[in-house]
Amino acid sequence: MNSRHDHFIPIREALRDPAAYIATHKYALWLLYLPAYLLYFGMLQLRNVPAEAVHLIETPLDRMIPTIPAFFVPYALWWLLFPGALVFFLFYGTKREFLKLCFILFGGYTICMVVY
User: Fold this and answer.
1) pTM listed for this prediction
2) Per the structure, how many domains does the chain have?
3) What is the DSSP letter of 112?
């Protein structure tokens, strides 16, 4: 019998026995990148860098763009979309889709951390 909540079955199974889920979905271990990234990001924020060693990444064009408070909403929603997309593709996407998303997101974030 199909229930209207059948789409939650993969999540329920993962929550019921996380070790068994990871054993059958080893690629889920890529999510361990997130705590490592956040730790490194926090360490970068705590650095005490002299002002003369800082290079602002700004162009004259950037100064011409107005600050519109309403645009903060989509920017803030990105921080919900990011983990939400990872969870969605982990449970409902294919392995290839999940790994492609991880590669794009984690690759971009890693490049930014190396540059900063």
Assistant:
1) 0.73
2) 1
3) H
Q: How many CA atoms lie within 13 A of 77 on its CB side?
A: 5
Q: What is the pLDDT of residues 8-33, one digit of tens each?
A: 677 888 888 888 888 989 999 999 99
Residue pair 27/99 in contact (Cβ under 8 Å)? The answer is: yes
Percent of the chain surpassing pLDDT 70: 93
Q: Measured in Å, how far apart are the chain's first and last C-alpha atoms? A: 54
Phi, psi of 69, deg, nearest 5: -55, -35
Distance CA 42, CA 102 (A): 21
DSSP label of 67: P
* HSE toward the beta carbon, residue 8, CA cutoff 13 A: 6
Range of the domain at 12: 6-115
